[in-house]
Amino acid sequence: MSARREGHLKEVAPGKWKLRLTLGVDAGGRWLRLNRTLYCSKAEAQRTLNALLKRKDDGLEVALTRQSLGAWIDEWLTVWCKRISVRTRTDYEAVLKRYLPNELRGRALPNLSAVDIQTFINSLTARGLAPRTVRIAHGALRACLNRAVKLGKISRNVATLVELPKNVHTERRYLGPNEAARFIDTAETDEHWGCFFVLLLLTGLRPGEALGLQWSDLDNDVLRVRRALVRVCGQPPTLGPTKTGRSRVIPLSPRVVQALQKHRIRQVERRLKLGDIYQDRDLIFPNELGGFADDHNIVARHFKPLLDRLNLPSIRLYDLRHSHATLLLAADEHPKVVQERLGHSTITLTLDTYTHVVPTMQKRATERLDTLLGNQTVVTSVSQ
Hints:
Layout: H1 3-6, E1 7-13, E2 16-25, E3 31-39, H2 42-57, H3 69-79, H4 86-99, H5 102-105, H6 114-126, H7 131-150, H8 177-187, H9 194-203, H10 207-211, E4 218-219, E5 222-225, E6 228-230, E7 238-240, E8 248-251, H11 254-274, H12 295-310, H13 319-330, H14 335-342, H15 347-353, H16 358-372
Antiparallel strand pairs: 1-2, 2-3, 4-5, 5-8, 6-7
């Protein structure tokens, strides 16, 4: 069979191509052909044809879908996003629903071009959206189109060809050693959420992980972090996996253990006082009735007032985790240990997140090397 009979392209207008691909013959001896209109460059149209011919040679299904991007996004979120976290799926859905224009949403998948995606990304940047938000939108499109390629709906993921705005590194705010000591001393006097604050600062847990802890996770002075409290707008809170999907074990200091013991006594007393009204979910940090706590209320009613009383920087609740990591690295703790305590997926993520500590570590490394060599200056001469 000639190459033209197998498949060919014909330009019917600038940027508009007719694609014809011969698939074979049916039981009645009639030729089966695929006909599609592509709106793209000649090179992109040729790549599409080549990819379809390869799928045919490999014995795979050959079909360019007529499904629109919007319809495919809806299907992808419903059917193909079961393995990603609820939080990530919600972020993807929210950003695409809010920012993806109807014109692009109605475009047929095979007619998407890299220019279309780049124009969309540029428009988000022009609106003043943070680089992280732009990257979430791009990540959603890239993942969505990757699945479309695997299913044979399209031949190429054009979202991989665009340029993204540079990530702007924002300096993390954290408590220094003296500030952290003052914070813990005062937090321990708060009978409601003091233990929660102490645990965050001295273990580096994410707030959602701490709010998902159950007493069964505590074994004397060892804490196993297995889950996190997940809050999604418009849905009731649930317990889900940790951010990385893996559990981790954290040894607790005597100070944390003592704070937890006192906290448990107060919790038992409250449960006995409330009787059947109390919903016992075995949570270490429930709300007053034993249900899932709201971190926004904790911040507004307890955390921010505590910072104000101590005249400390107005940090976020999450910044107690950053304070924990910063203090450990500043104390020359090995980054691998810090990574494991924080539950980061890689040590690179840990070092990239806490780059503000690296210069201090470098300075001390230089001083230790100088001390090791006896503060001697070695001069090497090269004879001519």
